[in-house]
Write a structure and sequence with these properties.
By secondary structure, the chain is an alpha/beta fold. 47% of the residues lie in helices and 13% in strands. It contains 13 helices and 10 strands. The longest helix is centred in the N-terminal third of the chain and has 16 residues, at 2-17.
Length: 268
């Protein structure tokens, strides 16, 4: 329904503005929706961050990536594996250009500003003495049993090192639906050290500063896997696959799935 609304609205905008080129970024629903609307109006399309593949069609983002790349005229990729994916899918070489990773360009550009963040002081944290967590993918938070397995792992880790959890609105709703506390997860209450601390979402600079000084990052985000690799912080990805395999082969990332014991062992 969300995708349909975006397509209708963007078609009207294209009809009014008559663009010469549409540039879409990444793999969110609006990326695919705008690309489809433009394709049907014969507006040329450039896709930035093209060619990434997880191989998992249960992920909404994977469908968005496949469809957008299928209708795009110019495919701007971040890495060699993305080039290879597109070539394997029959995209002509002349439509593919490796341009690099603008998200990492942004990270380098903003690192100096992020040093001014006071988030560590606000949360009373010392560098390299806490873990940072993000969790938002439907496959992880919409299934109560899977979410509880992940939470069991986080509680175990939180007994040894504080886990700072800026909760995505989607995840916060699921935590409430499953009867989990707003501030700390059950089993972690009353600990002088450690515990899983659920906080409101952070702005980009505060979260970048938090990541940079973490001992460990746990996430199911694609972008954070890349940021952790560049920052040199160990990253455990709570998924069985990744559309950014370079973070595993050349970076700091490990895929640990959703098994409680595997996550805890990897964190230790």
């Amino acid at each position: 329904e969300q995708t349909a609304h975006v397509m209708v609205a963007y078609e009207r905008l294209c009809a009014a503005e008559r663009p010469d080129l549409l540039i879409v970024v990444g793999d969110v629903n609006s990326t695919m929706a705008c690309a489809l609307a433009a394709a049907k109006l014969l507006v040329p399309i450039g896709h930035l961050e093209a060619g990434l593949r997880s191989g998992d069609r249960t992920m909404p983002e994977e469908i968005n990536r496949l469809v957008t790349d299928a209708v795009a005229d110019l495919l701007w990729t971040p890495s060699a594996d993305a080039d290879a994916n597109l070539l394997r899918e029959g995209i002509p070489t002349e439509r593919i250009a490796r341009v690099g990773n603008v998200m990492i360009d942004t990270l380098f550009q903003q690192l100096k500003r992020a040093r001014n963040s006071t988030i560590l002081d606000e949360l009373e944290l010392r560098p390299r003495e806490f873990a940072a967590l993000t969790l938002h993918r439907p496959a992880n938070v919409d299934d109560g049993e899977i979410l509880r397995r992940i939470l069991d792992a986080l509680i175990a880790i939180g007994r040894e090192i504080p886990v700072i959890f800026p909760a995505h609105p989607r995840t916060a709703k699921r935590l409430a639906a499953f009867g989990l506390s707003a501030g700390r997860l059950p089993g972690a209450d009353g600990l002088a050290e450690g515990g899983v601390r659920i906080i409101a979402p952070l702005g980009y600079l505060d979260f970048l500063h938090l990541q940079k000084h973490a001992a460990l990052i746990l996430t199911d985000s694609g972008g954070i896997q890349e940021e952790a690799t560049i920052l040199g912080v160990p990253c455990l990805t709570l998924r069985d696959n990744t559309e950014r395999p370079i973070t595993v082969t050349r970076g700091t990332n490990r895929l640990v799935g959703r098994d409680t014991g595997v996550i805890v062992d990897a964190a230790r």
